[in-house]
Structure formats: C-alpha cells, structure tokens
Amino acid sequence: MAEKVRKDFDAESTKGKQPTAPGAMDDDDRVDYDPEEQQQRERFQKNQSRADRGAAASGPNARAYYHDRRVYHAYFGGRRFTVQYGVFGPAYVAAEVSTYVPVPNADVMREALGRQHLIRLCGEDGSGRRTTAIKLLDEVGCRRDRIGTVEVDDDLIFSVLAEDCVMERGAGIIIDRDDRPMRDGAVDALRRRARDAGAFVVILDSTGRANAEASFAHEHPDHREVLGRHLWVLLATGAAPARTRDTDQANRAYHDRAVQHPAVTSRIRLATSVRYVVRLAEHLAGNPDREGDLDQLLAEWDNQSRTLAKDILSPAEKTGEKAHLIPHRQAFRIAYAVFAGHPLSDVFHAGELLSQQIIPRYETRGTTPDRLVFDGNIDRLIHPSMVAPARGDEQRPGPRCAELADETLIRAILDVAWHDYDTLRGPLMAWLTVLAGNRSWQVRLRAAQIAGILAGFDFDQVYRVLIGVWARWQATYRRSAALAMDMAYVDARLTRRVRRRVYDWSRSPDPLLQDSAARVYGMRLGEEDVPRAIRELARMGRQPELAASSSVAAAMSMLFLSGAADDVMDELADWVASPNEHLPQHAVRALVVLARQPGSVDRQGWPALPELAERRERWQRALVDLWRNALTNAETSRRAWEPMRKWLLAADHDGKLRAFVEPLAMEIFARPLDSRARFNLRLWRNRHPDAVLIAALIRRLTPGTTREATDGDI
Question: What are the Cα distances from residue 123, in Å, to 222, 437, 610?
Fold first, then answer.
C-alpha cells in the first residue's frame, strides 16, 4: 500500500526514486546536522512524553498567555538569532500569586534574589518552578506588568543577550532552560546586566545544576495543598446567580469533601506535576452538582482527553452538514492536531491532502466533494474545545499557527482515529507516507514523529506499512524512518523493540537499512549509550556499502553536539588516520558539519573545534589531517573552504584564537595545498580588505612577497 501511495504522490518528495547509485547513495539529499531540527525533535518528544503521563498544561491558570510580546534579532557568529520577550500581564501574575503554595527555602530564595538580582531554581519540569519564580519576582518588587519570560532560538545567544537586551528597572525576567544547562559565564554576564539595570532574573534549570552559585533545589510543593488552594479560589470566584452565606458554606463543604476524597488523594499522590493537580482542581470546580458522586466525576476526568477527542471526530454534529463533507471536517481536525504549533498553511495543506486526495482512495464516492479545505470557514472546521484561547498579542510576528488547548489532544485524537475509526487507519498511514517526503523538513519531522506515536498503538503494523518501507527508500525517507524510530524509542513499552530492530538494521546485508540504522544511532538511542553507538558507527563506516552516504558523519556530528564532544573527537582522530579507505572519508564529512558550529558562550567567537583542539595536541594533529582531506576531497572541498574562511575571519577578533589558528592554518595549507590556498586567500582578501590574518597568511605562503604587495590589489 505505502509503495503505491508514495509512487502516486511523487511530486510531494524531493525525487521519489529508489537510490540510483550503488549502496546508500544520498540522492542529492545531504542530511547534515541542523540545530533547529534537533531542538524541535527533542521538544516534541518531551512534550508528548509528558502529555502521555497526563501532565500537559491546559486551562487559564496552567498555561501563560502573554499580555504583551516583543521580538527582536541579534547577530552572533555570522548567524541571526530571534529573541522574544513575553509579559504575562498583571491579572495573570495576581492569579499566580494568589494560588501559590510555598516550597522549602522560599524565604532564602527571595533574599538571595533581592541581593544578587539573579538566582537559579533547579528542579524537575512540572514542579511549579515558574509559579515560584513569578512569586519571588513579585516579592522583590518587580512591577506586575513587567514580569515575563525571554525565549531564544539558540543557547549561544545568551552571551549576546546579556549585553544587548533591554533590561528595565523593575522588570522580572524568567528564563526556562528546558533541561539544557546554561554556561556559568553567561549566567555571570546576565547577573551583572540585571544588577546594573535594577532588574531581576530567575533561571529555571535542571536538577543537575543545583550546586552552582546562587542555585536552589526546587522541590514539589505539597500537592494536596495545591489542590485545596486552587479549588477554593475557583469556587470562591466562580459565577453564581446570587452568592449567599449558604453558597459559601456549600462551597466549603464540597471543597473539604473533594480534597479529602480517597480517589482524589490517590490521584494527587501519583501526580507527576503541579500542572496535573491544577487541572484536576479545575475539573472539580466545574462540577455543577455539589452533592454528586465524585467517583463518576473522577472517571470522567481520567478519560477527558479521549472523550473530547471522540467528540471532536464525531460525525454527529448538529450542523446540517452533508454526509460526504464529514470526512472533510475530520481530516482537517486531525491535521490541526497533528500540526499543532505549525503555521496554518501547513494545516490547510495537510488537511486538503488527507481529505481530497488520500481518503477518496479508500472509499466509493458518487461525486467529488464540492468544497475544499481552503474554501471552509476555519472557525467552523475546528472544534471550539480543541483550540487554545486567543492570546492578547495580536501584533505578534510571523504566520498564524495552530494552537491546541491541551497537548494531550494530539495523542488522544490519534488514538480515537486509529482505534475507533478503523477505516481511517489506511488513509492515516498513506497520508504520513506522503508527508514524510515533503519538501519542508518541519513537515517531514512531524510526520515521522506521528508515525512513532502510532507505533505505540500497533508496532507491527506501523513498522510493516510505514517505518520498514521508509527505511528502504531514498535518503529523505530513511531520515524519516530514523526519526519515527527515535520517537518510538522514548515510549518505554517500545524501547527494547526499537533497539533490537535498529541492531538488526545495522547488520543487514541491505545497505539502505544500514544507512537508516546509522541515522538512528545519532539520536536518543545513541545518546544514551555513546560508546556503543560509536562502535556501531565505526563498524558500519568501514564497510563499502555506506561509502557514498553522509549518515555516519551526520550521526557522529549529532552525538558531538549532544554532549559527547570528547568521545567523538577521539574517534575522529582515529578514523582520519585509519588504514581503512572509508573511515577517513566519513571523518572528513563530519568535519565539514562540525566546522560550522560555534563554540561555547565562555569563548565567544571561537568555533567549536578549535576550542576543543586547544586542549589536546592529538586533536590538533587530527584537525590538520581532517582539514587537508576536506579541502582536497572532490566531494567536500567546495563546502569546506567556506567554514575555513569564517575561522580565519573570527581569529581577527580574538588574539588567543589567532595565535592558535595561524600556525594550524600554515600546516593545513602546506604543499600541495599551498597553491589552492593562495588562490582562495586572495579572493577573500578582496572581499575583506581589513582581514589581518588572511593578509598574513598570503605573505607567509608567497615567498618573496613584501608587505606592500599584499596590502595592495592582489
């Protein structure tokens, strides 16, 4: 089925052909490491893992909607970064403060923040760190209309942010690290900036950073007290026809009964986050029957996402809609859920594809539907309960995006579509097959991850129809197969099965399966056991089957940038000197990817590789060999010269970097590269007449050339 659908929709992919060269040729689809894709992949995995445990945020007090949002761009290392400020607004801050339940050492945290202007709250996601941060910022005197968050699209920008961002007196800024540690140098720079401006900063960090300076371990507040506080506020402020003493007494009695109910107690004892407890309080507060059966109410709570999903996909709506248009509406709602967070253009494209081109292949229609997705009114196509409330920042930049009220709906809607509408299984898988070859990497990534979620419903069928087929197609689809397996891997029920399948791929005689396995080893499976992943990549890299593929190099690059830099550098140093004819080639490809990566914020302006190689002479020797291979290799030379130019320009602005790079460059440009190096250096000298190091290298590589000659028109 998948092969036929994919063939019929050939225009949706890059080429749609089987590999035309021997082995696992990449078919012009270079799969280099992309930091933005890596971040989106990890963010979606984390959100869906949390949603699967019932800890997703929803409701007016569980998710922050910004009262005001400001966006600006900063530049660092030749790249543009987006910085977004979101201010919660006084009403939201007041609501958070009124329901706050203190955590241990809250007084000490407040005193440290007031004195130092910056602290770190280190704890698990869902422990209520953000609400504590809002409470602390409010208590140290920040203006409620100036408390909010700052978000950046890359960690490196924090060093620039510390110098360039506008910090106003009385502003309170929350920076959520999302479990990515922030460098101490960036923290110190932000602290100085906040102190000078009279602002205050709270960093939400992982538990592993609790020993850093001005850091506090943030524990969960008492969940029963959180439930009681939120439930009482909701009951006391809820609408009533005429509030009386009897009303307050009834609310108090209901509050006490709910908080002490054994079934409620068992749920909050197992709660994984404060968000879960707050949502439970909202559910209890919405019960109109104060004397009713709480067990029934809690049963509805346990299944609320699936119940809502069934309502969303139900064909029985009182709209007078024609029967043949019901699948059209269902298709759009599935697309809206699947592409939550994406621009609405992606939703409309995916919804039209499913409704108008995929579903008709699985049913008999007398006539073609008389309305396309883009002809419909979006407010009518979307179920009102699935959409997040409108934000207050209508001037926010960028296209309008699909936003779900609750991220658990992604999995719930897929669950209902898969299990309750068995006729949708075929169309869903065919739809994902087309989307997994889309030109947009964002669409391909989400389609592959949805396939990984479906694997949790029926691994054998999804593997047989989707993932296993993708793993034997062109590079675009092999990448999607790897991403789908990576998503399935985070499902604890599937971890062992995924690991075994990938192991089988890596030892298959089929080079396409080997190539797919290499891609998976650069993701979560490899990150959790780096030595084993590197051994497997080295074993596959020695074989001629993957000689034409960039998958091994891409996987090594991803492991490098996920925190295994030392292990990867040691291995690349071995590979470039290996007698095997293929390993040096994979090492050179990895260099081309990694050479473009900037270093840490502590060494602003340094590329990542010189920063590492500075520490070990063996890595310096390996770096010279890698560069010489990369600059002379027909496959990589065109791409390799550009990062070399950026290295040389960066060295002009840092004396220590120049002292390291200049002798390294002379070794790299030694014969027989000297002639080609002079040619490129002279081109760069004309483009950058003030580049000191480039001019110096020209002089050193041109015997008998005077300084005056190099300073002229070369």
Answer: 15, 39, 34
